[in-house]
Structure formats: structure tokens, C-alpha cells
């Protein structure tokens, strides 16, 4: 059984759009691309290196795949090598092949295909970026863990990690810490159903 793990940079108000640069994703006139850069310190870099230094494959939406495919094949460094070596499973109805090695394209009943992937033996499936695609994963109960980096800013508008389709589940935190620049690193794994009560 393979876990699906969502790794996201998010703001305090849940925005995850274009964390890495001004031109990354300007859809809906988003003006704050690159909002993570001023906060990216050595502790956060080491955490990312640790999380991407373990065996993994990638599960990506089409837009994030295009961004990655335009960058990582030319950057085979400490971070780039694991990404380049991972199998990239891409949800897309419009592309069937690509020159980037180990790219596999899924179309049609993507939810069924992802469910089958989870049942296979193999490394964990990491989801990076892919804001729209994540909503499909959430609404179909396919996410096992969140590895979040929560930045001490609000942006007001933009693509959010949790849209309208997130299902009600309890989660348990693990490995939580704060970087010198104020980024909260918070990991969560599924921990059963939501419980309610009264005071």
C-alpha cells in the first residue's frame, strides 16, 4: 500500500499559489508569486532535503508537471536528482508522452487509476503544487498525510490548499517545528473520524 502525501507551502490564510516565483502561476491575476523566498532559511531547506531524500514517486497535475518539466531536467542537483529519477504520474487529458524520463500520463478515470496506484507496492506518492488536482484527491478521500510549511503571511486571494471538497477527517500532528524565519513545519497523518462534543 502506497501513501499519498501532499507537500505544500501555504500562507496563514491557506493560499498555495505560485510560492516559487513571480511567473510561476499568474492565473486570475495573482500578483504575489515568489512569496516564500524571503522566508526560505537553512532549517527549511534542510527539512525539504530530508523529505525529498527518501524514496518517492510524484503525483502531479498538468500545470505543475509543465512547470517542473521546464526546470528540473536542467537542474540535476541534490534536490533535482530525486525529482528527475522519480516516476512522474500526471493527470492530463491532453498530453500522452513527454521527453522527461519516467513520465506516465493518466486520463479518463483518474481517480480509479490513482486508487490502483495506492494498492501497488512501491515508494510513497508525493504531491507538489497541483492546487486544482489536490481538490480531486481531497474530494475522493485519497490523501493520507499532509507535510505543510505554513508561512507567516496572508495574501487574501489565490488558489487554496483546502477548497470546498475536503472531506471531514481527524488528523494527528507529527514532526512539528518552527524555523528561524517563522515558518511552521507541520506534518499531519489521518487519525480517524471527526469527533464532536459540547462544553
What does this structure look like?
The chain is α/β, with parallel strands linked by helices and 199 residues long. The protein has helices at 42-51, 62-69, 80-85, 110-119, 131-139, and strands at 4-11, 56-61, 88-91, 103-106, 124-128, 145-151, 171-178, 184-190. An 8-stranded mixed sheet has the order 4-3-2-5-1-6-8-7. A hairpin with a 5-residue loop joins β7 and β8 (184-190). The protein starts with a strand and ends in a 9-residue tail after the last strand. The mean pLDDT is 94.
Q: What characteristics describe this protein?
A:
199 residues, globular, alpha/beta
Distance between the termini: 40 Å
| Strand fraction | 15-25%
Oligomer: single chain
What structural category characterises the helix and strand content?
alpha/beta
Element pattern in H and E: EHEHHEEHEHEEE
Based on CA atoms alone, the radius of gyration comes out at 17 Å
Backbone shape: globular
- Residue runs with pLDDT of under 50 for 5 or more positions: none
Biggest beta sheet attributes: 8 strands, mixed
The DSSP helix count reads 5
Helix content: 10-25%
Strand order of the largest sheet: 4-3-2-5-1-6-8-7
Brief summary:
With 199 residues, this protein is of the alpha/beta class.
Would you spell out the secondary-structure blueprint of this structure?
Layout: E1 4-11, H1 42-51, E2 56-61, H2 62-69, H3 80-85, E3 88-91, E4 103-106, H4 110-119, E5 124-128, H5 131-139, E6 145-151, E7 171-178, E8 184-190
Parallel strand pairs: 1-5, 1-6, 2-3, 2-5, 3-4
Antiparallel strand pairs: 6-8, 7-8
